[in-house]
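Full entry
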Amino acid sequence: MTARARWALVVGWTTGSTLLLALGSAPWSTALLVATGAVALSWLAWDTSRTPAPAEPPPRTAESWLAGLLDGMSEGVVAFDRSGRVVFANPAACSLLGRKALPDGTPMIAFSDVPRFRSTVVTALRGGATLRELELSHPRRRVLALRVTPTPQGAVAVLLDLTPLRRMERSWRDFVADASHELRTPVAAVVANLEAAEIVTDADVQRKMLDGAGRQARRLGSLVSDLLDLARYEAGAVHLEMVPVAVEEVVGSCLEELASAGTPVDATVLVPAGTCVQADRSSLTRVLANLLTNAARYGGTGIAVGAARGGEHVRIWVEDAGPGIPEEHREQLFQRFHRVDPSRSKATGGTGLGLAIARELADAMGGAVGFEPVEPTGSRFWIELEADRCERSDLPSGYAAAASPETSA
C-alpha cells in the first residue's frame, strides 16, 4: 500500500467517525449512509493501492484520483507529520480555517490564531484522539466539529461545518423563549375580554369586550406570523430570486400595498430615476414596508423615501421628522422585541420584530441595514444593496429609456 493510500485510508475512517459523532441525533438511515460512504472510501483507497498499475493510463492515476476526491470533499482534511508540519490540506480545510492555502511544510505556529485547533492537534500528536467544537470569528463566525486522530505518520484533522445546524438550534431556542414571553400578554387579554363579555349584560359593554378580544387576537396572529418568518430567515430557509430591481417601482408598489392593507403612509418619494439594485423583489418590499410603517407609527409627519448611489452600492433610506431615537437604544434597534417605547408600540399594534426581520432579509440579500439620527429631530433608517443596471422592462412605466445607476445617482 502506498503512503498516499495509507493516508486516504486513515482519512476515510476519520471522516466517517467524525460525521457519525456529529450527526448522532440524525435518523439512523442518514448515519448508515454516512458510515457506508466512509467505509467505501477506505476500501477504495486500499483496493486501488494494491491493484497493479495498468500500462494505460499512467501509474499515478489512482493517486491523482484520490487527490481529486479529497480536494472535492466538503469536509476539511489536514494531515500533519510527527513534527506538526502540514503534509496535506484540502481546499475545504483552508476555507474553514480562513486560509487562502496551507502548503506542505506549514508549521504549527501558523495556527496561533486558532489556539484550540493547535492544542488539539498537539494532543493528537502525543497519542490522544480528540473530538471537540471550535468557534471561529475570522473571516466570519463559524462553528466547526473537529476530530484529530493520531496516526503512525503523525495526525489527521477532520473539520465539519456545524454553523447551519447551530444556527437552526439557536433560532429554535430563541423562538420558543420569545413565543412563551411575548404570546402570554395577548392570549391573556383575549381570554379576559371573552370572560368579561360572557358575564356582562350591557350590549355596549359586551361589544367593547368583544372588540378588544378581536384586536388582541389579530395582534396575536401578526406576532405568530412574524415569529415564524423571523425563525425561518435566521435559519437560512429563505428562497431568494436576485434580479435587477427598480427602486422607485418597489417604493411605489410598497406604498400601494400599505394603503390597500389599511395602513396608508403619506411619504415624499425622492428616488432618482433609473436607480436599480440587485435584490429579491418581495424581500426588499417587505423591508421597505417595515421601515415605512415604523416611520408612520413613531415619526408622525414629514416622511420621505430616497436613494443614493455610493460606489458599487445603493442606499435606500426612509426618513421621518419624529422625536428621534435616544442614544442608549440605538445599538439594540435591530434586535428582536426591542422597543424604544413599549407602551406606544403595543398601542399601535407593533410586534417588535419589524427591524429584526429587515436585518435578516438584508443580510440574506448580501446587503446591510442601519440607522442614523437626523438633525434637529428625526430618524433615518436605511438598507444598502449592490447597485445594478435596469433593463427597460424593470423600470416604471413612463420612462423614455433605461438609465444606469452610474448616471442616475
Summary: Residues 3-161 form a domain with the Beta-Lactamase fold (CATH 3.30.450.20). The longest strand covers residues 142-151. Residues 24 and 403 are 55 Å apart (CA to CA).
